[in-house]
Amino acid sequence: MKKIRNLALGAITSIGLIAAASMPAAAATECGTSDKITIAEMTWLSASSLAYITGAILEDGYGCNVEIVPGDTVPTATSMLTKGKPHIAPELWVSTASTIWDKMIAKGNVYKASDIFASGGEEGWWIPDYVAKANPDLKSITDLKANAKLFADISDLEKGRLYGCPPGWGCEIITNNLFKALGLDETFELFSPGSGANLKASFARQVTRKKPIVGYYWGPTDVIGKYNLVKLDMPKHDAEKFKCLTDKNCLNPEVTGWAVGEVAVAVVTEMKTKAPNVAEFLSKLQVPNAEISTVLAWGDDNKASPEEVATYFLKNYASIWTKWVPEDVAAKVKASL
Question: In the chain, what are the domains?
Fold first, then answer.
C-alpha cells in the first residue's frame, strides 16, 4: 500500500499512477467513497497478510483511503457488531465466533461477502508427505492404531506419540475425546505440545530430520505448505457426534470428522451502497488453500512481514487475484508493484 510501502517503490508507483491517469475516464473503476475504509489485521500470518493484500488492491487499484487496524477474531467481530468497524475482516473464523456472528446476521449490519479459503478452514491430524509415501496403508486416523510404533518416541519405544492440540484451545478437548474414541491410549501417548509455537517447532524438528510425526494442525498455514503435510482421512462429519467431542465431559465419544471451518470475508453491510465496486471485489476474494499455504511458507522461510508476504503474493500469483478485479484495477495494482 502506498502509505506504508517502502519509499524505494515511490518512483515505480508514480509511473503506475501516471499510466492509470491516462486511461479514459469512462474506463476507470473507482472506489466510490472518499471515507476511510478500515481493514482488520489479525494476529496470525494468513489473516494479517490477507489484510495487506486486500488493502493494497483497494488503495492502489481502486484509489480508496485505506487503514489497516489491529484485530483478533472475537474483538473484531464484537466491534463490527456494535460499532460497524472495522469495515472489512478478510479472515474471520465464523466457527470461533459463532454466537457473535449469529447476532451480526440477525442485526443485518454485517454480511459474508465470500468464503476466503476455497476449501474452507481445515483441522485434523497430519503426517509429513514422506511418511505417507513410505506407508501406503496409513491413510486414515483409523489406521493409526496398527502403525503406532512408527511414531514411537525415544522416551517410550513401545508406544507412538501423537502431538495434541495446544492447551486452552478448543481443539484440545476435541482431540482428547477423539483419541479416546479411537482407543489409541493402548498404543499411543497423547503428548501436549504446551503451546502453538512448540507444536510448530515439533513438526519442524521432526521433518528436518526426516523422522515420522503425527499430530493436530490446522490450515491453511505456513507449516502445512513448508513441511508438505498430508491430512489423514477422517469419517464424514456427524454434527451430533462432533457436539459430544467438543464437551470435556463427553461420556461416550464417537469417531467423526471435523466440520469444514467456515472462514468469512466479513464486511459491514453499508459497503454495498457506499462502495459497490469494493463490495463486488470482496465478493470474489478467495484463495486456494494449497497456494496460500505455499505463500505463507515463503513468508516464514524469509522472515517476511505481512506486508512483504502480500507484495510477494501480488507479484507471483497474478493468475489468482486478477480474477477478483476489473482489468483497469489489475493494471494499476501491477504498476504499483
Answer: 7-120+261-336 (3.40.190.10), 122-245 (3.40.190.100)
105 closest CA partner among 222, 267, 314: 267
DSSP structure class, residue 88: E
List, for residues 99-117, the tens digit of each pLDDT value. 899 999 999 999 999 999 9
Residues 267, 250: Cα–Cα separation, whole Å: 36
Position 266, amino acid: A
The angle at the Cα of 199, spanning 195 to 203, to the nearest 5 degrees, equals 170
Of 161, 182, 179, nearest to 171 by C-alpha is 179
* CB 245 within 8 Å of CB 174: yes
Of 198, 205, 209, 204, residue with least CA distance to 226: 204
Rounded distance between C-alpha atoms, residue 86 and residue 81, angstroms: 10
What is the pTM for the complete model shown?
0.76
What is d(CA 61, CA 262) in angstroms, rounded to the nearest whole number?
A: 28
Q: Which tens digits make up the pLDDT trace of 196-244? A: 889 999 999 999 999 999 999 998 988 998 999 999 999 999 989 988 9
SS3 (DSSP) at 261: strand
Residue 190, C-alpha cell as written in the block = 497423547
Instruction: Read off the DSSP letter of residue 232.
Output: P
- What is d(CA 144, CA 124) in angstroms, rounded to the nearest whole number? 13
